[in-house]
Amino acid sequence: MLLIGNGRVCTRYEAMPWVENGAVLTDGEVIRAVGPLEELKAQYPQAEFVDACGGLILPGFINAHTHIYSGLARGLTIEGNDPTNFLEVLKGTWWNIDRKLTLDGTRASAWATYLECIRNGVTTIFDHHASFGAVTGSLFAIEEVAKQAGVRSCLCYEVSERDGAEKCAAAIAENADFARHCKEENSDMVKAMFGGHALFTISDKTFEAMTKANEGMTGFHIHVAEGMNDVYDSLRNYGCRPIDRLLYNGILGEKTILGHCIHVSPAEMDTIKETGTMVVNNPESNMGNAVGCSPVLELWKRGILLGLGTDAYTHDMLESLKVALAIQRHNTALPNVGWGEVTGMLFRNNAKMAGRYFEKPLGVLKPGAAADVIIMDYRPFTPLSAENIDGHLLFGLEGRSCRTTIANGKVLYKDRKFVGIDEEAVSAFCMEQSRKLWGELNHREY
Questions:
Q1: Between the CA atoms of 200, 74, 118 and 433, what dihedral angle is there, to the nearest 10 degrees?
Q2: Are 376 and 397 in contact (CB under 8 A)?
């Protein structure tokens, strides 16, 4: 048992949203109790105490859309790559990188991602992987690292025809094999989805092959209308808009995640809503790729389950939250919109989305929920309570405020030091693999 206390507890649980001097008691993989510190200390004197040092005790963050395969790209320049539009970004940067990833490169990318997640208090991710240099076994390689790192993960491989029929078939097989594996293992730490890149790289024939291979095992995770390429391709080659293509091909549904959805029409939004399909907004990536601003306010108004991701632009969910609010206000030229929507995306909807895959409740501190707990260093200069906690998180904290991360009842990071992970060895491995990758991309040694 762990007793995490000596701080303010923000539970995200309506029946007990806030405990001023509180504690969370974990018992194995679940939370047993939440309440005043002294009461829980008296009831469970045998529990190991984890000191919050007067900070904030929160549920672990959930990232609803990220990309492990970009884990070794930090600081990278690919010589001759000077993209002027989104398609050039994909071709010159991301497709270029994933074509060079070996299985060891994928493992290193996973380690780099998971260490950053742990440092930033992220205990659950939904990843969308690509490594066309080594497709077969890539999701299993990520799973190995996920289990060692201790971060809850929902994984898929992005099917695409961009590298030919053989690679496309291998991607479909990797998704199907991994989905069957996860179904058999039935772990609440690793789940599977069936990934697809974007509609302009997937024909209807490939969609048919994907749904056949999936056999209804899981939902789909796909990029949709991120750039206008999707819209033009669907209208030109299929006579309909992207969401209609997905509907006709049996991709939509309550377990499917659509990433981005920037260029979607009102009628498409209605289809998303009626099918119960989920959408994830990735504000920083959208801005960085200059593809536009997602219609978050309208998607929210229509009752679509809309979550927040990072697209691997960052692993700091609070950073993504700040940008999500700023871009919505900038886009509408209204300084009083977006607050409820963006905080709801991160603190409520990401947990609801996770609930469609993981068995134990996530994103909440209450008895029976997953023992995913983080401690954030924070000593405010202004009053702090359940009423204004979101304002403090937006304007007073960042991911690196995290001092301790606990996932599935296991301490992964305590007082800013990794527990059970040899950080130096992992960092050396990542450096070795990044040098190889960068050398392949630029034809020189690093």
A1: 90
A2: yes
